[in-house]
Design goal:
Elements: H1 2-10, H2 21-34
Helix pairs in contact: 1-2
Length: 40
């Protein structure tokens, strides 16, 4: 599921704040690893 949310953020459809709390930390780590950061 984290990968799905990650892809939605990368596509500009979601923000990190839109990700369910259960997955938010993992998605934030994925974004940090690729240098995008969160909430952009």
């Amino acid at each position: 599921m984290a990968k799905i949310y990650y892809n939605r953020i990368r596509a500009g459809k979601w923000r990190l704040e839109d990700v369910p709390a259960r997955w938010r930390a993992e998605v934030a780590a994925m974004l940090a690893a690729d240098g995008k950061g969160g909430g952009e």
